[in-house]
Amino acid sequence: MLPDGFLIGAATAAHQVEGNNVHSDLWALEQMEHSSYVEPSLDAMDHYRRYAEDIALLGSAGLDAYRFSLEWARIEPVEGQFDDGAIEHYRDVIRCCKTHGVEPIVTLMHFSSPFWLTEHGGWESDDTPRRFERYVEKIVSALGDDLGYVCTINEANIGFQIARITELFKRQAQAAQVKAASHDVSGSAAESNLQMGMNLQKMLEVRQLQEKECEQVFGCAVPQTFTSARSKHGDEIVMESHERARRIIRRVAPHVRVGLTLSLHDIVALPGGEQLAHKEWDEEYLHYLPVIEADDFLGVQNYTRSLVGPDGDQPAPEGAELTQAGYEFCPQALEGVIRSVAENFSAELMVTENGIATDDDSRRVAFISEALSGVDRCCADGIPVSGYMHWSLMDNFEWQLGFAMHFGLVHVDRETQCRVPKPSLEHLGSFAKRDH
């Protein structure tokens, strides 16, 4: 039995579900002729207008938490000019959650940024922490009274992961070319090690054309979005942005529990891979400890494990079940990650993302059962895990890979926007009903 007060819910990200996020940098990238996105988000799941319907579905299934993000590009579409209507919209979303007995867990920045921020250097600019701080102060001053949990930044480490996986992909492609078999390179081995939808093959194919187009759109060949490959200095900028946000939140809304989320693999060292596995864990998690140890909680986001041999990351074992995203089906990885994180972080942990891309909902049901069994064992051993947010509430726009992958507890018909709950929604809700 999960502990009293344990939150069970589902998660979304604004850009992936709201639709028509026209002031964001990722919207601009999607619309480009030489985009690495296979398709644009357009109206996505129309969640900006249909949020009440979606939250009602979540609540009626028994879930008692909803993790969602506020879209900075909507709130501050022009630098220094805040849209009060957008702020009121998110106030309505928060109130809707509470009407349905659902705890709102808000993320302030989930990958997409205002176009103007990226135009001014994005997440490699020394001015970004100040600009993020201004946004955070505005939004927390307006909405903080109604919130209990705030994630400042989603997957603060994703830029480092993208840099590493992009380099791995390039090496794989070069090796294939040497063998005169470049036409067979799919990139799946590299892409399956990244816990977000990236289209690395197309990124390489259109790179030169895209750089020319980016010069016209952003004024630079390689715009530094949050999901760009990140430098060490860029990583420091992200951490400074988080620290500034944390200070603001504690001053303006001291009752709010504040943290960030990290994309974490259950890193398994194969014989001879121990040193590389430790290096990968340090890059993914350990080196953030000096900053996050002052946080109230850490958002743990996990989808699979990572096998590390003497030559680095290895593909899933032969014959292993793979998801639509190319990940190894590995719900037990969540327990491994929680235990690894808890060795160095003693404050509250919350699973802010965990899920599976599949059209076989029975496998999602099995995934949820096994993942929550692992969480239950962690709680029984005294690890302070306070909640589980499944990714995702509904099928959505999976970044560069478009709408083909289905992570949702709810199916969304792209033609009619009709919502159809899957059995997995009620299954997840049964844990909340059972344990509360």
From TrEMBL:
Enzyme Commission number(s): 3.2.1.21
Superkingdom per UniProt: Bacteria
UniProt keyword annotation of Hydrolase present: yes
First-tier enzyme category under EC: hydrolase
Gene3D superfamilies in UniProt: Glycosidases (3.20.20.80)
GO cellular component: cytosol
UniProt KW Hydrolase keyword: yes
Keywords: Glycosidase, Hydrolase
Listed name of the protein: Aryl-beta-glucosidase
Species for this entry: Coriobacterium glomerans (strain ATCC 49209 / DSM 20642 / JCM 10262 / PW2)
